[in-house]
Structure formats: C-alpha cells, structure tokens
C-alpha cells in the first residue's frame, strides 16, 4: 500500500520517534492540529506500514548486558537450505539484535549483546554447532558513540 506523506504526517512521525508514549493531545498540540485528525493520520500511517511495532528502549548496561560484539561472518555456503538454517539460528538467538547480509568480502554482520565475553563464547559455540561458516571475526565495542532509531525526516 502506497501512502502520501505530507508535512503534518512528517511532524507526527518526528514526535512519535521522539516519544511514542505521548498522548494524542500532546502530539496534536506539538504539530498544530487537533486530536481526531492526528489519530486518523496515525491510523493511516500504521495501515500503510510506515509505523511499525511500537516498543520501549531498554538500557542494556543497566540490565547487565555490558558487552556488545559486532560479528563478521564469511561463508562459502550460499544455497537456499543453508541460508534458511542460518536465518533460523539467528532468529532463535535473542542475543542477536541486528543481522545484515552485506555486499563485499564479508557476507554477514551481526550485532550481538551479551553480559560478558564468556556469554559471547557460549553464543559463538552454539552458532557454529548449528551452521557451517568459513570465518568468524568478533569485534568488541569499547564505547557506544551514537545509537538511534530515529530517521532524519
């Protein structure tokens, strides 16, 4: 479904990205509209798939997940069966926060959040026991400089 997004829609989306827990009254006030038109626009944007799942962002370190690894994977396997098995292995692991298939020398990059290096090793051992990979390189993030889900509307 295609949807046209005008300036008011963009303002609503900016507000939702900033704080999705705002009331309709607060959003309407900030975008210069009233509650019912804002609700209708949000409903339209959800229906069109522009607005997806709404959730909260947790602080991983506050919950003991102090280690963030970026895992670079090279594989010599590219058959559909292997890809399905790999995808299932990633989907079954809550430690994997992001997974991307890449162009270039590296086939996949994963963002893996765990409590410590020992927990990463357990993740790694489990992954390679399920799917065959040619090479795995893990990079430990020393400091998160910027992290956002906000799109530049």
UniProtKB/TrEMBL annotation:
Ranges of residues in domain HTH asnC-type: 5-66
| Protein name, entry field | Lrp/AsnC family transcriptional regulator
Keyword check for DNA-binding: yes
Q: Which GO terms describe its cellular component?
A: cytosol
Protein transport as a keyword of this entry, yes or no, is no
Pfam families cross-referenced by the UniProt entry = AsnC_trans_reg, HTH_AsnC-type
Mind giving the lineage of the organism this protein is from? Bacteria, Pseudomonadati, Pseudomonadota, Alphaproteobacteria, Rhodobacterales
Task: Name the UniProt key words of this record, in alphabetical order.
Answer: DNA-binding, Transcription, Transcription regulation
Gene Ontology molecular function, alphabetical:
sequence-specific DNA binding
Q: Which BP terms from GO are recorded?
A: regulation of DNA-templated transcription; response to amino acid
């Amino acid at each position: 479904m295609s949807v046209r997004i005008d300036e008011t829609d963009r303002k609503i989306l900016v507000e939702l990205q900033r704080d999705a827990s705002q009331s309709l009254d607060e959003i309407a006030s900030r975008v210069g509209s009233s509650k019912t038109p804002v609700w209708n626009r949000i409903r339209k944007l959800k229906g069109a798939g522009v607005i997806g799942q709404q959730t909260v962002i947790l602080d991983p370190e506050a919950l003991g997940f102090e280690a963030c690894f970026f895992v670079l994977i090279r594989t010599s396997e590219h058959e559909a069966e292997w890809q399905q098995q790999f995808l299932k292995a990633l989907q079954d692991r809550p430690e994997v926060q992001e997974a991307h298939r890449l162009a270039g020398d590296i086939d996949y990059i994963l963002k893996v959040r765990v409590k410590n290096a020992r927990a990463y090793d357990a993740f790694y051992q489990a992954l390679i026991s399920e799917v065959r990979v040619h090479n795995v390189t893990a990079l430990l993030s020393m400091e998160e400089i910027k992290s956002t889900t906000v799109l530049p509307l």
